[in-house]
Amino acid sequence: MKWDDSAYREITDKIIKAFYKVHDTLGPGFLEEAYHKSLVKELKKSFSQVDYEKSYSVLYEGGEVSHYVPDLIVDDKVIIEVKAVKDLDENHKAQIISQLRVTGILIGFLVNFAKKEIDFKRFDNFYEIEKRGLKLE
């Protein structure tokens, strides 16, 4: 599915540059917390709103059953899930997809700083994109 993400390109470009800056500066080998805090610091240079550890309710049949806490949310438009693991796996992907669904945010990044080369993947919330009528034919 395709959608017009042009309104998000500037923000996603700046986020990706921040990934590279943090990775180039620290390199691999640190715990997730070091990358998380460094990324917050780097993102705050470009964005006025960088939320971390913000809690969202998971609802089932009208009632709250749990909470989801994305690592970072930039300008209420993009979720970033920070990892420092050997390899990203299906559980990590499921985590970011669930966070997108719970928050209604359209774009998320899963970024792994543990490798020699930065490893990140973008995820689009097609459920919400379709619901808002943003998809392209």
Number of helices: 4
Query: How much β-strand is present in the residues?
Result: 25-35%
SSE sequence, one letter per element: EHHEEEEEHEEHE
Total domains: 1
Oligomer: single chain
Number of strands: 9
SS content category: alpha+beta
Measured as a percent range, the helix fraction is 25-40%
Itemize the secondary structure elements and their pairings:
Elements: E1 2-3, H1 9-26, H2 32-43, E2 50-52, E3 56-60, E4 63-68, E5 72-74, E6 78-83, H3 90-103, E7 107-112, E8 119-124, H4 126-131, E9 135-136
Parallel strand pairs: 6-7
Antiparallel strand pairs: 1-9, 2-5, 3-4, 5-6, 7-8
3D structure, described in words:
This protein has helices at 9-26, 32-43, 90-103, 126-131; strands at residues 2-3, 50-52, 56-60, 63-68, 72-74, 78-83, 107-112, 119-124, 135-136. It is of the alpha+beta class. The protein has one domain (2-136): Alpha-Beta Complex (tt1808, chain A), CATH 3.90.1570. The strands form 3 sheets. A 5-stranded mixed beta sheet has the order 2-5-6-7-8, sandwiched between helices. Strand 7 (107-112) and strand 8 form a beta hairpin. The longest helix is centred in the first third of the chain and has 18 residues, at 9-26. The chain is globular and about 45 Å long.
